Amino acid sequence: MVNTVPEAPPRDLLSRIGIPKKISWGFAGIFLFMVGIGLELSWLSPYLVDRGVDVSVVAAVFSTYGVTVSIASWLSGVFFEIVGAKRTMLIAFLLFTAGTTLFVLVGVQQQAVWALFAGYAIKGFSYPLFSYSFLVWIAYRAERDRMSAAYGWFWFAFSGGMSVVGAYGSDLLIKAMGEIPVLWCTIAWAALGTFAIVVLNRDDIKPDRTAHRWRELASLFTIVRTEPRLLLVLGIRVVNTLPQFGLPVFVPLYLQQFGYSTSEWLSIWGTIWLSNIVFNLLSGHLGDRMGWKRTIAYFGGFGGAVSVLAFFYAPQVFGHNYWALLIVGLLLGMCIAGYVPLDAIVANIVKSNKGAALSILNLGAGLSTLAGPLLVALFAHLIGYVGVAWIMGLLYVAVGCTVWYVTPRKSAA
């Protein structure tokens, strides 16, 4: 008699492509919510200046926003563990609505500077709680051998909503209805995302009633002591999206020297992130096959260094050549996607308390929104735009060298 081992049940389509079936609607919710975030990002700063707000005030408002985004990113994982999945999403939506209402109704329409600061600061707490908390949800629901692919789908939804549909859609909506209605429209998109993730998504993770809440909060500090590799993760994650938040500060001005129009810049910038969301998926699947650390080092680290410098030098080599810059931009978007497996590594560094571990990763994402503009502010006048580009490139090289020291419990490298 031959002993047979029963075969594992076949995976459904969603599981085969890397989306955990239990939380599939959550990915749609992330996409819709991030459209609401992205609709205002590419034009809000110059719009406020055109309405008479001083440039220094606008810069301070966005810096304050970066600080609250960083704080919320850091707290998001542990907040998820303490409050529970769907409650976290609802709280994030309420913060988004309250912040937007104060910002638009009082800050923009009545030109009250205090409301610009307060409203945008409140709004800064919202999207990290909504989106980065979902990273913890994925850590609990995704299969380990498809985890990198699951995070690839997350970043596909995140970047696709904020940097692609949000960027292209804002141009169309502003032409159709004007700036103020578009700002109000962001609440509708956030509401759709919340509906998808809270109502259509049937899964939930309840808070652990036996856990001590203060102990959970303390783990934000103690986990770095017990897992010092997370400090490397923090630095790597900050570097990951430096171009996303740093390049828009100076590249539009830099490109004007070579005859590029604002429309051309916006088109190239949107296409970079269109390529990024496609390669987010490919990078997730590649990480599960080629190895998580190899993907980050070769594509995200060394590839990122080459591509960010090529993007800066392309206008000097080719002059006002839209297609040449676009092709180099596609390469940059691809390499930034090389960091997708980092989420899977962090989720597997610790056996428990995944929320605290992912909070460190999310803190890096939040700090990147602050570090990008700060890097330009500190060094552009000292060493010029070329110096800023080289700093970004060298930081990417550093990632390619150091990521090998970040080892999950069962190495996937």
Automatic annotation (TrEMBL):
Tell me yes or no: is Transmembrane helix among this UniProt entry's keywords. Answer: yes
Domain Major facilitator superfamily (MFS) profile positions: 22-411
Q: Topology with regard to the membrane?
A: Multi-pass membrane protein
Q: Which Pfam families match?
A: MFS_1
| Compartments, record wording | Cell membrane
- TM regions (residue ranges): 23-45, 57-83, 90-108, 114-138, 150-169, 181-200, 230-254, 266-283, 295-314, 320-340, 360-383, 389-407
Q: What is its main location?
A: membrane
UniProt cross-references to InterPro entries, sorted A to Z: MFS, MFS_dom, MFS_trans_sf, Polyol_permease-like
Q: Does the keyword Transmembrane helix apply?
A: yes
Q: Which superkingdom? A: Bacteria
Q: Which UniProt keywords apply?
A: Membrane, Transmembrane, Transmembrane helix
The name on file for this protein is MFS transporter
